[in-house]
């Protein structure tokens, strides 16, 4: 009975908010229903396609109600760049899963002073670890760490793909890229068959699957009282608690047996100790914040890079002529030696193909939504405080206004007339502005090294009688469907 009264109260409040906001001069958009807004117009399996239709119909700035949350879809890359450079648009959208479960901790869900402090720390760490654009001793060390996992992945792909049945590369790539991030984030790596490591991989994939930006639970929190959604929340919370317990054990082991390996965990712990020793307020540097931050760094670093690489390999198998051109480019540049970062400027076609895959299969197709920190405007339109602002990558990357034949795979669109890389203004794979991906350069390094060495040593194709499926499944990220490929040695 109490739950029913609570539901009625929430419904009444949301109705008042809905009617009140409707009097403002909001951006154009579809009419919605009270309480649920436009949620029924969104296909839960392909939310990016549903929202793209709305964006293309109503314009580059359009608004709709996602349940109780007023949402603005931005599909103009110039506006995305302009608005996301402002503090007003640097908040986080009031989503239940990020605010109710993540509690505003970490890097992805935090905002305000906590976010600024933590982002500054993370950025400094990454640069100190070697994540820089130009050659340096630290970058060389980081490259060596990456190449250890790259070579392991290539050897496993070749060895396990013998025979006509092929191999789904997902588990191998997840292990190798995941272990790379384990070293960077935790200063610890695992054997492939380690049970704890298998559990970590499983829980990460489950989280990505269930925490969808467009899921109704984000916008109608009272759904948590229903068994279906309540079970989902319980799964996420249990996984989060167990993960943090393991992080605490890793931290305790580090304190007992410190290593020389650079890691976020070690650097963060040193900062906590420094502040305590100097009598400074810990502020944002607490163990609770540490565990949420570690989860964000590991999850974001693995999932987006892993998914992009999986899409790249599928596109290479689906377009063998393009694969052959890239392999010829790599061979002409490196000969018999293995490609590395020094060769990157001389392999524009390879990087153009990666960029085209990022355009066609935006890993986070709806973008990571921002929130307005105060009442504001976009042009002549009113945008209330607490609105969700979506940098709509899918709609931008497939808009014929910015791309000719936008659904076609054409890496050459990223090749400039002088033969170098072109960087169109409508290409936003890492978003933009104050909250753009802090690890963008690390992701580029990982992608170019994995892609170059895999294609240098292996030829990719679908098994006989099969075709490559280039459709995906959408959670918080757009991931390829499980499928096998052949990886045959080119030597």
UniProtKB/TrEMBL annotation:
InterPro entries: Cyt_P450, Cyt_P450_E_grp-I, Cyt_P450_sf, Cytochrome_P450_fam2. GO terms for biological process: organic acid metabolic process; xenobiotic metabolic process. Pfam families: p450. It comes from the Eukaryota. GO terms for cellular component: endoplasmic reticulum membrane. Its cofactor is heme. Its main location: endoplasmic reticulum. The keyword NADP does not apply. Heme binds at residue 437. GO terms for molecular function: heme binding; iron ion binding; oxidoreductase activity, acting on paired donors, with incorporation or reduction of molecular oxygen, reduced flavin or flavoprotein as one donor, and incorporation of one atom of oxygen; steroid hydroxylase activity. It is a peripheral membrane protein. It is found in: Endoplasmic reticulum membrane; Microsome membrane. Keywords: Endoplasmic reticulum, Heme, Iron, Membrane, Metal-binding, Microsome, Monooxygenase, Oxidoreductase. Belongs to the cytochrome P450 family. May be involved in the metabolism of insect hormones and in the breakdown of synthetic insecticides. This is Cytochrome P450 306a1. It comes from Nasonia vitripennis (Parasitic wasp).
